[in-house]
């Protein structure tokens, strides 16, 4: 079974600016994704493997989390300034117990003069009994972390 988690925000800045801030600089992930305690750790650092920004389809991103674990994301699509999609090349222990994969997609669209709408969805592919039992609760926490991340991006974008 798959759980879809969604967060969105309207940001009063142009799409190219919002995309660049949210997806164009890998290190910004640590700045914006602050997690949701106790289940969803923040990002401590994020770096591309073997290349500089911006990401490209097929590249890997190493992500260290504040709980001491790490994950590796595989970029599936990077189409500035509209789309950023990735999945999990390596998951942390909690993710491995609860799911077989997680696929993320960020879409950026114009929303009025000089504004953008960002829609971020995660498809969480549950694994086994624990995934089915705990997946919905973890997904609720993850959705809150995603929304906080978009809110943090909005604050930074408006601050200039």
Layout: helices, strands, pairs:
Layout: E1 2-11, H1 15-24, H2 28-32, E2 43-48, E3 60-65, E4 70-79, E5 83-90, H3 93-98, E6 99-110, E7 116-126, H4 128-159
Antiparallel strand pairs: 1-7, 2-3, 3-4, 4-5, 5-6, 6-7
Quick description:
The protein has four helices and seven strands. With 160 residues, the chain is α+β, with helices and mostly antiparallel strands.
Please characterize this protein's 3D structure.
This protein is α+β, with helices and mostly antiparallel strands. The protein has a single domain (2-159), classed as Alpha-D-Glucose-1,6-Bisphosphate, Chain A, domain 4. The chain is 33% helix and 39% strand. A seven-stranded antiparallel β-sheet has the order 1-7-6-5-4-3-2. A hairpin with a 3-residue loop joins strand 4 (70-79) and strand 5. The termini are far apart.
Q: Helices and strands: which structural class?
A: alpha+beta
The named CATH superfamily: START domain
Per the CATH scheme, the topology name is Alpha-D-Glucose-1,6-Bisphosphate, Chain A, domain 4
Summarize the amount of helix as a percent range.
Answer: 25-40%
Summed over residues and divided by their number, the pLDDT gives a mean of 97
Strand content: 35-45%
* Shape field: globular
What are the salient characteristics of this protein?
4 helices, 160 residues, alpha+beta, single chain, 39% strand
């Amino acid at each position: 079974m798959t759980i879809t988690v969604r967060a969105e925000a309207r940001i009063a800045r142009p799409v190219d600016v919002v995309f660049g801030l949210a997806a164009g600089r890998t290190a910004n992930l640590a700045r914006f994704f602050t997690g949701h305690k106790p289940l969803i750790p923040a990002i401590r650092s994020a770096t591309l493997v073997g290349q500089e920004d911006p990401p490209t389809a097929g590249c890997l991103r190493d992500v260290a989390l504040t709980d001491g674990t790490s994950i590796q994301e595989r970029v599936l699509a990077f189409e500035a300034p509209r789309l950023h999609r990735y999945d999990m090349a390596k998951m942390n222990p909690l993710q491995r117990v609860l799911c077989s994969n997680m696929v993320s997609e960020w879409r950026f669209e114009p929303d009025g003069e000089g504004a953008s709408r960002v829609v971020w969805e995660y498809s969480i592919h549950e694994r086994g009994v624990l995934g089915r039992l705990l997946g919905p609760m973890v997904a609720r926490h993850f959705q809150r972390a995603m929304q906080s991340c978009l809110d943090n991006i909005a604050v930074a974008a408006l601050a200039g």
